[in-house]
Amino acid sequence: RYKSVVTPRRAAVAIACCWIVSFLVGLTPMFGWNNLNKMRRTQELNTSHSEFIIKCQFETVISMEYMVYFNFFVWVLPPLLLMLLIYLEVFNLIRKQLNKKVSSSSNDPHKYYGKELKIAKSLALVLFLFALSWLPLHVLNCITLFCPSCETPHILTYIAIFLTHGNSAMNPIVYAFRIKKFRTAFLQIWNQYFCCKTNKNTSPTTDEPDP
Fold it and tell me: Which range of residues forms the domain containing residue 180?
């Protein structure tokens, strides 16, 4: 039922919704959920004659309530747990199918489900790398919010930030090493646009069909 349910139009709508939600969540501080008023009140209490200056640091400008309650507890942690449950169910169903005794006239289901298991493992690896990259920074944000007196080493913060940025570069590498079609496409792009080579032997008609 996959091809009948996941049509190109529905996929495009789902992707567009993800981008729209991402923009709204990411731009929420610009709509007013920030520390601007708090900084103004603090400066007014200290001195009323000096010019209002904003110290350009992330934790100074961005509200930790936004980062923890809204960003982490709403848009990161629940989807992460939901995806984890979905993948566990997917692995369970695939293993059940692989363990079944099938007849010889069943179009080799072991080969099909073995391929599905490999793809599921690749996507689960992407999910694991996402959690590994983003959870440290969110944990540090929770410590900053719930334990203001606790001081975390700056090096840990820098490492956590580096991991979040590095996560964007991990996915293409995982796809290229784990999924043959992605690897072929990346090699074609690399040869064509970076090495100025064209593979004359490849054409859209020679691609292997989707399952």
Answer: 63-195
